[in-house]
């Protein structure tokens, strides 16, 4: 495929998805495909004034949308799910083109969007509150969940479409409007999602204008949204560094946040582990998506009795894994997103070596020349948990360290700043249950005999500590997108005061 044909494929695919060629040309933000470095589009960024106007409009839309019954709001998300089913192949391909994911992962991401739509449709009839026993006669106490307002969504390049849908599907059934700022590295997938959503909105018929929109901008555009008083909730996915800035800024104006930040996810391999299962799970968790998931397995603690066997098997997997252009091959590992990612990977490997690490893999692989960054995933044997192991490097690096005592392994796993995902491989029920207990993994996701990545949408997704504490997606994550009112109703003829207080004014 010649360089220019990638651009024409982009125009053709985006056209099929409903985005005009004009929207892809002449803009001030260049979009490069990480698959070969080619410039595939130039899109227009929004000014601060445009973003503010968009938020004002979303706020007006919210005032209407909050009065629409939940199940009817669910109908819009059902239509979105239908449109996504129809566009799955094309949107999945744009994810591969723009984010460099291998085809099954690009498609998997769109499947995750379809799944959350299904979930949200059911949820639209289940925005339940509690009825609570009251201490007063002839009284009823209950909770009501109300729509919150404008939800600002900030998403990262690595899940350029799914993370938006987790937020938008829930926010919309909960009666909110949404404004989305995608990563400036992946605006095309966002333009495609907007076109898909616009088709669902057209079929829906009478949704208020400006209900769910997006804008392309660099960081300063995101700041406009973060600081805007009419954005009730900012749901931000990205680095811990970004979250450290977003969190306090939103808190300053008493807005709400859902923060889904860095992960430095670990696995523990115990003496009884099913080794075949563990190797496959760890290989996918560490090398899948070229190590660019927030749930990627980055650290591994292996019991000394299994260590040599595990390292030998992993080395084989690392040296044998196929690396290639996701648009043209069925390789399992695609490119890093850009040169910065490659520089960070190299830096971390240098630092690991300086800390006594032995590196297998990690070298650059020439797939499509100098303007794209393909690397063999790196397996790094570390004598102890030290140096770069404490940092999240968004690249395919897996550090492996030996342990002899289970409690030490647990302590090492919890000894980092982030607290997103974790896993244990064991057939020993005591180890498994301890890992899941209050003294076990301190992460938001803790798995047994499953890797750290690839969570289903049905569970709440997010993590503790420097991961930010937010939860998105399934379970009761919807509650973060609504405000709770406690209502007490007196249907009697007296006015008893709570706690037996007397206050007789006659
Ligand atoms: C992310 O990397 O930001 O659990 C999200 C997973 C995916 C989501 C990852 N379902 O790996």
Topology:
Layout: H1 3-17, E1 29-32, E2 39-43, H2 48-65, H3 70-99, H4 103-123, E3 131-132, E4 139-147, E5 150-154, H5 162-173, E6 177-181, H6 187-204, E7 212-214, H7 219-227, E8 231-237, H8 240-252, E9 256-260, E10 265-269, H9 275-287, E11 297-303, H10 307-320, H11 339-354, E12 358-361, E13 364-365, E14 374-375, E15 378-381, E16 397-403, H12 406-414, E17 418-419, E18 421-425, H13 429-436, E19 445-448, E20 460-461, E21 464-465, E22 472-473, E23 482-490
Parallel strand pairs: 5-6, 5-8, 6-7, 8-9, 10-11, 10-18, 11-16, 15-16, 18-19
Antiparallel strand pairs: 1-2, 3-4, 4-23, 12-15, 13-14, 17-21, 20-22
Helix pairs in contact: 1-3, 2-7, 3-4, 3-6, 4-5, 9-10
The structure holds 2-aminohexanedioic acid.
Explain the overall architecture:
With 506 residues, the protein is α/β, with parallel strands linked by helices. It is 39% helix and 20% strand. The chain contains 13 helices and 23 strands. It has helices at 3-17, 48-65, 70-99, 103-123, 162-173, 187-204, 219-227, 240-252, 275-287, 307-320, 339-354, 406-414, 429-436; strands at residues 29-32, 39-43, 131-132, 139-147, 150-154, 177-181, 212-214, 231-237, 256-260, 265-269, 297-303, 358-361, 364-365, 374-375, 378-381, 397-403, 418-419, 421-425, 445-448, 460-461, 464-465, 472-473, 482-490. α8 (240-252) links the parallel β8 and β9. α2 packs across α7 (219-227), α4 (103-123) packs parallel to α5 (162-173) and α9 (275-287) crosses α10. The longest helix has 30 residues, at 70-99. It is globular. The chain starts with a helix and ends in a 16-residue tail after the last strand. 2-aminohexanedioic acid binds next to loops. Residues 112, 158-159, 163, 237, 293-295, 453-455 line the site of 2-aminohexanedioic acid.
């Amino acid at each position: 495929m010649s360089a220019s044909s990638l651009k024409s494929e982009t125009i053709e695919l985006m056209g099929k998805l409903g985005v005009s060629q004009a929207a892809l040309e002449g803009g001030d933000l260049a979009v490069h495909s990480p698959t070969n470095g080619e410039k595939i589009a130039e899109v227009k960024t929004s000014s601060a004034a445009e973003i503010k106007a968009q938020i004002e409009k979303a706020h007006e839309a919210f005032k209407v949308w909050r009065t629409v019954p939940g199940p009817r709001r669910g109908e819009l998300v059902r239509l979105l799910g239908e449109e996504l089913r129809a566009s799955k192949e094309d949107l999945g391909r744009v994810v591969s083109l723009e984010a460099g994911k291998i085809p099954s992962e690009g498609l998997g991401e769109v499947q995750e969007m379809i799944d959350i739509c299904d979930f949200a449709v059911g949820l639209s009839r289940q925005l339940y509150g509690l009825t609570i026993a009251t201490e007063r006669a002839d009284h009823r106490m209950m909770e009501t969940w109300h729509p919150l307002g404008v939800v600002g969504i900030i998403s990262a390049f690595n899940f350029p479409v799914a993370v938006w849908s987790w937020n938008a599907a829930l926010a919309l059934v909960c009666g909110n409007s949404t404004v989305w700022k995608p990563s400036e590295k992946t605006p095309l997938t966002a333009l495609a999602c907007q076109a898909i959503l616009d088709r669902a909105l057209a079929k829906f018929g009478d949704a208020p204008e400006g209900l769910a929109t997006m804008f392309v901008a660099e960081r300063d555009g995101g700041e406009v949204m973060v600081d805007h008083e009419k954005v009730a909730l900012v749901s931000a996915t990205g680095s811990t560094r970004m979250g450290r800035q977003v969190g306090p800024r939103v808190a300053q104006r008493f807005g709400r946040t859902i923060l889904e930040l860095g992960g430095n996810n670990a696995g523990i391999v115990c003496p009884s582990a099913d080794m075949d299962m563990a190797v496959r799970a760890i290989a996918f968790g560490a090398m899948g998506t070229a190590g660019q998931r927030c749930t990627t397995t980055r650290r591994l603690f292996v019991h000394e009795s299994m260590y040599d066997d595990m390292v030998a098997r992993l080395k084989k997997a690392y040296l044998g894994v196929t690396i290639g252009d996701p648009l043209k091959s069925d390789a399992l590992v695609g490119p890093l997103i850009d040169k910065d990612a490659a520089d960070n990977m190299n830096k971390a490997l240098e630092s690991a070596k300086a800390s006594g690490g032995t590196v297998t893999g990690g070298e650059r692989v020439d797939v499509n020349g100098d303007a794209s960054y393909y690397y063999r995933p790196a397996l790094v044997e570390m004598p102890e948990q030290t140096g770069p192991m404490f940092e999240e490097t968004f690249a395919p690096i897996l550090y492996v360290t030996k342990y002899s005592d289970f409690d030490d392994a647990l302590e090492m796993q919890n000894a980092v700043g982030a607290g997103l995902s974790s896993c244990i491989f064991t057939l020993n029920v005591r180890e498994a249950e301890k890992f899941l207990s209050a003294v076990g993994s301190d992460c938001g996701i803790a798995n047994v005999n499953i890797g750290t990545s690839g969570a289903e949408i049905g569970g709440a997704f997010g993590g503790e500590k420097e991961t930010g504490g937010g939860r998105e997606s399934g379970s009761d994550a919807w509650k973060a997108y609504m405000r709770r009112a406690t209502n007490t109703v007196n249907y009697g003829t007296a006015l008893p005061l709570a706690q037996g207080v007397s206050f007789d004014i006659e």
